[in-house]
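Encode chain A's predicted structure.
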Amino acid sequence: MALVHHALENPIRRRMIIMMVEGCRSVEGIAEAVGPKMLDYHLHRLELAGLIEVTDGAITLTEAGEAYGALIKSQAERGGAG
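Encoded structure for chain A:
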């Protein structure tokens, strides 16, 4: 739980998860949207938290990633932390 909290307390990683929930599932696509700065670090934090898996440049949301991603997207749409 602590790893998930740490991963999702960062606004860039929350934005990345929202993008993944909305269908952007390539490392290249995420990099274009959020920039390449520290991209590997952010992906690694999400992977360590068990929210995503990255294989050959493709990102797969885990079951937990889908659930947390939907929650974060909902919060952002209501004007919360996004």
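The chain has one domain: 1-80.
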